Amino acid sequence: MQCYDFATTDTSAILSFMQEGSTYAVGIDVGTTTVRTVVAHIDGATGVPTIVGVGHVPNSGMRKGVVVNLNGPAQAIDDALGAAERMSGYQVDAATLSVNGAHILSTHADGMVAVGAADHEITRDDLMRIEEVATLGKVPANREILDVIPHAYKLDGQDNIKDPLGMTGTRLEIDAHVISGLTPYLENVQKAAETAKVHPNSVVVTSIAAARAVLGEQQLENGVAVIDMGGATTSIAVYEEGDLQYTGVIPIGGVNITNDLAIGLKTDPEVAEKIKLEHASAVTRKEDAGISLKHDGEVLTFKTSDIDEIVEARLEEIFEAVQQQLRNAGRAGKLPSGVVLTGGGAQLKHITDYAKNFLGLAARIGKPTGYGGVADDIEKPSFAAAIGLMLFDAERIAVSGQGKKKTSHKKPTRKGVMHSLTKLFARFKA
């Protein structure tokens, strides 16, 4: 192991030692009401990301997942990153971002190409070429392709090939799933990040990011849907046989429940939000009772029956729209692993019981996995998308092998330097 004499070595040499072999992955969930950021250090030996920084701040300037004022999300991204930077000791200059909104479309595509002589081996160039052929003319000019998910390939008549790389054949066909979004909306999210001095490594749909953090291989294989209940949108991603089968976004979310409570109970939105988080229930209670809370020095009293009636009406609208999305995917009532709920709305009491009864499927709250480290609130379903984005960023680094060049790794901040030096002194003293 390389050792330094800290009494004689200058700070730049110490920092160089600290950064040797370090790689960082960052996920930024740009939600309508909140921006959440997760920074993780990637272990060089195991490749497992360890969360070292977390930030979450209120957002403005967005409606139903779409940017309507660049200044709001740009400032929120900057503030959320600032909190994560202070915790981790590192500055962030690149990340994987989320995108949301009803403009996200899920479509089917297929195509065929001749790849060469009978002894030709399928290469990555062949796979890229057939994806281009499959999507040509399938996506309008004002839309940008976010991802192409191959469901199966056919090579010279042989069906259901998952990965033809290295196989021999002359005619290659593909059956794929294409996710796209409106180009101006995607560009605005990227511009908001760039205004905050953050380069977007890639952009991922929120529900797909959440699914990356909370789903296991068996669930993906059996058939499962992730329902990400955000502030102003509810996103769905359906998986089966290990692949994404469908994704959709509903422009209704937790804010609608808050607003309904504010109107129905004739109170301020701040009080309504507190009632929703602390006293609301997704399942109607049998016994009516009174609840009290303090606001601006005044004690306010409400009936649980009134709260339940308001919440139930809005949940019925949301889950009817979710059921319609599952029908569109051809999976209504047909998912062996049921649904997994993520997002801030998943924190509503008894929400899994409501989802189970309404959708006729098993339901549970999604708990993010696949990382090390512990931080406040990180295990909540509201952080699932941000953690999933960080995991996608870590995978991108592993595939590209260019973590040091293109990740968020930069010189530590002044405060981070002192914190890290303290750790190093302890380590070398030991």
Automatic annotation (TrEMBL):
Classification via InterPro entries: ATPase_NBD, Cell_div_FtsA, FtsA/MreB, SHS2_FtsA
Keyword line: Cell cycle, Cell division, Cell membrane, Membrane
TM spans (from-to): none
Membrane topology (UniProt): Peripheral membrane protein
GO biological process: FtsZ-dependent cytokinesis
GO cellular component, one term: cell division site
SMART domains: FtsA (SM00842)
Any Pfam family the entry gives: SHS2_FTSA
Residues annotated as domain SHS2: 25-214
Protein localization: Cell membrane
Quaternary organization: Self-interacts. Interacts with FtsZ.
Family: Belongs to the FtsA/MreB family.
Cross-referenced NCBIfam families: ftsA
Protein's job: Cell division protein that is involved in the assembly of the Z ring. May serve as a membrane anchor for the Z ring.
Name of protein: Cell division protein FtsA
Species of the source: Candidatus Microsaccharimonas sossegonensis
Annotated gene: ftsA
